[in-house]
Amino acid sequence: MSGESGRLMAQRYRDKYFIENEGPLPPETVKDLDLAYHVSTRINQMVPCELCGVCCHQKRIIVQDHEITRISEHLGQDMASFCDSYLFKEDGKWFFSRTDPCHFLNEENRCTIQEVKPEICNDAPFLTTQFIGAVFYLLRYQREGLIIPILGNFILDDSPCSRKAAKIISDEIAMVLSRDVEPNADGEYLDISAKAV
Fold first, then answer.
1. Do 82 and 111 fall into the same domain?
2. With a threshold of 0.85, does the pTM exceed it?
3. Who has the most CB within 10 Å: 18, 28, 52, 197?
4. Do residues 82 and 73 make contact, with C-beta atoms less than 8 angstroms apart?
5. 173 and 85 part of one domain
6. Structural domain contains residue 196
7. Per the structure, how many domains does the chain have?
8. pLDDT tens digits, one per residue of 41-80
């Protein structure tokens, strides 16, 4: 993956999850952020959602502006009514007002707006700021011994997908830490230690 692609991925992550940053990031930070995003993406791909409903009990579920339009149309409501009934705004961002459980989680632990649910719901739990941030920290400071204590704060013990992820996260991070690698566009890792100088 080129340096430009890495910067674009880091920028997407910062933009998507509203990470505040003053000025450009150092190249090593961009690389580690890119790797953290890829590690988390690989885990997300290897550990599919089990539809257990645990993520639907999170305290804050963000809803982007374009998602408000999509969800309100799906429910047959005008945007103002939808916002009044289901959302609140804080620091310029919209959130579901009821999240423990989410208003749209039914008694069978199924999402009633599955086709139009917010992107953060598809990303949970492994492509969220907290999880990617924890992976970034581990990659950045290369402290493998801290994997369980740090990620334990972000992996939900009562979620079947989290139990599966806990079994592979150490190997994924150790593999990245053991070699000089960059992720390619397919989420695979390229060994760049043998590149000609």
1. yes
2. no
3. 52
4. no
5. no
6. no
7. 2
8. 888 889 888 888 888 988 889 899 999 999 999 999 999 9
